[in-house]
Amino acid sequence: MSKKPVRVAVTGAAGQIGYALLFRIASGEMLGKDQPVILQLLEIPDEKAQNALKGVIMELEDCAFPLLAGIEAHSDPMTAFKDTDYALLVGSRPRGPGMERSELLAINGAIFTAQGKALNAVASRNVKVLVVGNPANTNAYIAMKSAPDLPAKNFTAMLRLDHNRAASQIAAKTGKAVADIEKLAVWGNHSPTMYADYRFATIGGQSVKAMINDETWNRETFLPTVGKRGAAIIAARGLSSAASAANAAIDHMRDWALGTNGKWVTMGIPSGGEYGIPKEIMFGYPVTCANGEYKIVEGLEIDAFSQECIKKTLDELLGEQDGVKHLV
Ligand code: NAD
Ligand code: LMR
């Protein structure tokens, strides 16, 4: 017997990430090839955006996806999030060349207050929320704080793009397959301060750190390359990453919903105090997922350099959080 459709809300549905994301959700890449979905798509009321959304919907229809059980277009989060089981909050302004993501807080922060409140009012009580819009960690924090009737653990921020970027750089450096990399972690903020940490990583059971054996490469090449990859893409494309961001969003939600079979992935989640991070800070942690729940990988040794990196990214998040006090 076929499964009951689940409701998936996507904001910014007519934007560039939306265009790379919706077709993959509708084809079953996010929630499984046996899971029908109803797409609840939100765009700003502006006529141009709503028209663009209509065009995207026509294309979705023309794909005749067997798993696509319904498509709705919305201009109000209160209707877009009604009973939604999954919410991918993408809609917001991307940065342009020369900007830092934190500069978007003033522009984008308020979006997440309104959307957090709407999720609080009308979404499924088990809704799984992923914030993609930048600065993703602090926007997710704002949404979480604006939804006091939903469990805080339902709100997450996207660090998966950093995780995937780190894995790809390691695969290139070691000449090994990206699929064979285990136990990679990215700590902290989705910003150049994030700390991609391969000290525990293995490939075929062998230590990646020992394989690379080059701390200068780690500090002077790997960390800046991963940390500044978003800016490098903006400089090259004139637009921020879209297909890789959509891919990371699919990975994040799929792993959260369907499990990781013990494999570590990175998610931005509200801290419960783990590794000395103050409670509620939306922090990138290594996690495993099973039965629709994520679990932080605990007990990892944090050496002096890692402590320094984690403090830097935490301090930045504390600063961002302080800057949005008026919104929460
Ligand atoms: P885009 O400008 O192409 O599309 C954004 C869309 O959101 C637009 O269609 C716009 O009309 C819509 N929108 C704006 N405000 C909205 C609101 N309040 N409700 C609903 N829709 C709204 O931008 P994009 O390239 O798709 O990027 C979207 C966001 O994702 C940006 O903030 C970008 O920085 C961020 N991003 C995050 C990551 C990550 O790893 N976390 C990666 C890439 C991009
Ligand atoms: C990215 O990392 O590619 C996105 O967050 C977009 C950006 O502004 O860097």
UniProtKB/TrEMBL annotation:
Signal peptide: none annotated. The keyword NAD applies. Pfam families: Ldh_1_C, Ldh_1_N. The active site is at H190 (proton acceptor). NAD(+) binds at G12, A13, A14, G15, Q16, I17, G18, N108, Q115, V132, G133, N134. It comes from the Bacteria. One of its GO terms (molecular function) is L-malate dehydrogenase (NAD+) activity. Residues 160-325 form the Lactate/malate dehydrogenase C-terminal domain. Substrate binds at R95, R101, N134, R165. Keywords: NAD, Oxidoreductase, Tricarboxylic acid cycle. It catalyses: (S)-malate + NAD(+) = oxaloacetate + NADH + H(+). Residues 6-155 form the Lactate/malate dehydrogenase N-terminal domain. Its EC number is 1.1.1.37. PANTHER family: MALATE DEHYDROGENASE. Catalyzes the reversible oxidation of malate to oxaloacetate. Belongs to the LDH/MDH superfamily. MDH type 2 family. This is Malate dehydrogenase. It comes from Roseateles koreensis. The lineage of its organism: Bacteria, Pseudomonadati, Pseudomonadota, Betaproteobacteria, Burkholderiales.
